[in-house]
Amino acid sequence: MSDEETLPEPDRIEGAPHPRDTALLVGQGAAEREFLDAYASGHLHHAWLITGPLGIGKATLAWRLARFLLAQPAGDGGGGLFGDAPPMPETLDISPDHPVARRLQAGSEGRLFALRRAWDEEKKRLKTVITVDEVRRLRTFLQLSSADGGRRAVIVDPADEMNTAAANALLKMLEEPPSGVTFLIVGHQPARLLPTIRSRCRELRLGTLGPDDLARAIAATGAGVADDGAALAELAGGSVGEAIRLINLDGIELYRALVALFNTLPQFDRAQALALADRAAQRGQAERLDLLVALIGLFLARLARAGSRGATGPEAAPGEAALLARLAPDANAGRRWAALHQTLGARIRHGRAVNLDPGALVLDAIFKIAETARE
Fold this sequence. Notes:
Helices cover 51% and strands 8% of the residues. By secondary structure, it is of the alpha/beta class. It folds into 2 domains: 3-205, Rossmann fold (3-Layer(aba) Sandwich), CATH 3.40.50.300; 249-374. The strands form 2 sheets. A 5-stranded parallel beta sheet has the order 2-5-6-1-7, sandwiched between helices. A two-stranded antiparallel sheet has the order 3-4. Strand 3 (119-120) and strand 4 form a beta hairpin. Helix 5 packs parallel to helix 6 (164-175), helix 12 packs antiparallel against helix 16 (358-374) and helix 13 packs antiparallel against helix 15. It is elongated, with a radius of gyration of 23 Å.
């Protein structure tokens, strides 16, 4: 195994296979069909922006599209000159025994370039952004002609992580795309991309997964199962990536502890609050702190939604529906919780940026929630 293969990969979710190794994409048939129709038309767009919430299969689709394109004969579909071309593929599926599939899995496919955050050799960690140096490596790749004259593919995952210089450098390539190259650009928040990048791409919008599709997708990753599938679906919001994080970090149990703590608002059990804060403050528990902060935000969002809609929806923890109905009985209360969601999120981000004690951050959030409940 080479040194590069042993380095951490920024596009891998802990506890799940890498998108290139994920054979099954669940619940995104409409997006797959849209791409296949474009391929069959013989006018395949040179750049595709694959959008949607985090963890719903965007990267998996990008690798499926790359595998599909590189396994096809040269040309853009639409039939041969004398009608002797092979029939149009009806799915994106490529046999795992296909040479392209094997090369992709081994990381040795010379016609694919994956643009993503690089390893910082000096700091011994992944860089925080995709830099212009990585885009220059892509330019070198594009200047080389394909060995067999066939297609090439570029995966950008995700475009949100490009700094300004990298984004501008990529834009120049999209403005004058090399022949036979297809860009597959993953975007979690496309509104943050340069408008000129968005305008040069055709968008493939992926949707969140329902409970049944979510369960199938989780099973396909081998990540295990949650003790409460309905609660997992509610908390994950249709995101496979978020569901795997919840499973790995006991997120359902953590959310139940939050609901139990808030069940007596505007009063709360200080011992329970301290115990929760201590769990987040333990050394080496940065991921658990991230999850706890996210779950506090989710609880506030569910409060705001309950107030604005007048309905709580399915429970994500025992007693949650009654708690939401009590704390957010009307639209006015919903607006108060929505405002707290925004201000508390900014307060926590600032606290983490200046390295405040994690336990103190969690306690501060609990106090602010109790204060709003008293109002």
